[in-house]
Amino acid sequence: MPSPTEPSAQPRRFHDEPLVVIHRHLLERLGAGSVSIEVPDPDLGRGCYPGEQVGPGGTLVHRPLRSWCDLAEGLGCRLRTPRAVDGTHVSLTFERLGPEAPWHVGGEVEGGAPAQERYGAASAFARLRKLEDAGFLLPWLDALGRIRLPESARVLDLGVNRGDELAAFSWLEGTPDVRFVGVDHSASAIAEARARFPDARHAFVVADLNALPEGLGRFHLVVSVGTLQSPGVDDHALLRKLVQEHLEPSSALLLGFPNSRFRDGEVVYGARVRNLREPDLSLLVKDLSFYRRYLHQHGFRTFLGGKYDLLLTAVRDAGG
């Protein structure tokens, strides 16, 4: 008998069965391990829609690789790299993902470090490189491309961590030279940001978002990704303070709302409320409705995009 962590030695072969049959087969056999199946090669049906019958030697139903990736994610699995079996079929292995990343579930900080270091340089979170994932990178570049900044614009990043989002400014053609101010409660993350952006025009400050330092001044752009909804942050009060005290008349905001979580090194789509197993987007929708309504009342035009992070871009002209 195969180990519960290993795929079956004799994977079932599918041809033209409905996807719900395949889904049921995987559910019955996954457990805590992995399952392999043989399915029509996705490349045989390039240009076809899912369900169109293609292929030699019998009836085969085409499904693109994206569909199998979506199925794996819905099952809480990692899809291993497909392996060719013969001229018509490939082998797919669905491997059950491990637990959620520690920063999602709370608990003690690694090594007994202070709570401020939950996202610090030595944390599990520090291993992430979100902008190496196209699901994060491309929407971020699109959002930055909607914003026009003047030369020497001031950019404030709340929850800057090591400054990954700020680095993307240099990747866009025609982006002016800007000055960064980053705020984060993790001293180790701020130290990394300072080393990454050593230019004296940039400033990185250790502070709590509920008590921003005096003398920050006004900015042409405020950026915050995944921090406004952090426990303990009064995001409504912070938004009002930003708009009333820290934005130039002609300015923009780029705000990211998490619509994903991480499990066993994989990003999983959908915001999840604690104590619920399945994603629940109701709180996310409520937050976005408040932000858009408030920003519209203060003369901003908004655009909502993104995937794993929903990105709210808000732009206000000087006359707005």
Question: What does this protein structure show overall?
Answer:
The chain has helices at 19-30, 65-74, 102-105, 134-145, 164-167, 187-196, 235-246, 282-297; strands at 12-13, 34-40, 53-54, 60-61, 77-79, 83-84, 89-96, 154-158, 179-184, 203-206, 219-225, 247-258, 260-263, 266-269, 301-306, 309-316. The protein is α/β, with parallel strands linked by helices and 320 residues long. The chain is elongated, with a radius of gyration of 23 Å.
Mean pLDDT: 89
Helical proportion?
A: 25-40%
Largest sheet strand order? 10-9-8-11-12-16-15
Given the helix and strand composition, which structural class is it? alpha/beta
The number of distinct β-strands equals 16
List the helices and strands in order. EHEEEHEEEHHEHEHEEHEEEHEE
The gross shape turns out to be: elongated
Report the span from N to C terminus: 70 Å
CATH class of the largest domain: Alpha Beta
Nutshell version of this structure?
With 320 residues, the chain is of the alpha/beta class. It has two domains: 12-96, Translation Initiation Factor IF3; 103-316, Rossmann fold (3-Layer(aba) Sandwich).
Features:
single chain; 320 residues; alpha/beta; Translation Initiation Factor IF3; Rossmann fold; 7-stranded mixed β-sheet; 5-stranded mixed β-sheet; 25% helix; elongated
Task: Give the SSE layout.
Blueprint: E1 12-13, H1 19-30, E2 34-40, E3 53-54, E4 60-61, H2 65-74, E5 77-79, E6 83-84, E7 89-96, H3 102-105, H4 134-145, E8 154-158, H5 164-167, E9 179-184, H6 187-196, E10 203-206, E11 219-225, H7 235-246, E12 247-258, E13 260-263, E14 266-269, H8 282-297, E15 301-306, E16 309-316
